[in-house]
Amino acid sequence: MALIKCPECGRAGVSDHPTAKGCPGCGINVYKYLEREKYIKRRKQEEIWKKEGKCPNCGSDNLANVEDSYKSRCKKCNNIFMTEKDYEILGKIVERRRKEDIVRRESMRHDYDRWHEERMEMQREMYD
Ligand SMILES: [Zn+2]
Ligand SMILES: [Zn+2]
Questions:
Q1: What one-character-per-residue DSSP string does 61-125 give?
Q2: What is the full per-residue pLDDT of the chain (128 aa) written as tens digits?
Q3: 19 CA distance to ligand 2 centroid (A)?
Q4: What are the residue boundaries of the structural domains of the chain, listed by start?
């Protein structure tokens, strides 16, 4: 708790105490303003860590895979999360399954077409 310069309007001697009234210059709640800044900074840091394949909670790169999932677990703080890499891997798996599905469906249709053709052939032979 201190008297600081207002981060919004620059007015000196403004309190950053949670229960303090708004800045006399611009009216902002300095405490909330600073908390929000801290929160934004923290979120940005988390994004960077995630991109680097690190724990978004503590920045450690000592990670383990969580069994039967695409998630990572931080060995240091036990945080469970998905890094950018995890999302990439999951995306590739989904893409591959989708392709396999298309191939399977196409081969099923092919089998059906052949069966249908053979049947028509037999019918033609029977009625001719
Ligand atoms: Zn102000
Ligand atoms: Zn961690």
A1: --EEEPTTSS-EEETTT--EE--HHHHHHHHHHHHHHHHHHHHHHHHHHHHHHHHHHHHHHHHHH
A2: 689 999 999 999 999 999 999 999 999 999 999 999 999 999 999 999 999 999 999 999 999 999 888 899 999 999 999 998 899 999 999 999 999 999 999 999 999 999 999 999 998 888 87
A3: 33
A4: 85-128
What separation in Å is there between the alpha carbon of 36 and the centre of ligand 2? 22
For ligand 1, a single-atom ion, which residues have Cβ within 5 Å? 6, 8-9, 11, 23, 25-26
Q: Which ligand is nearest to the CA of 59?
A: 2
- The Å distance, Cα 20 to ligand 1 centre, comes to 13
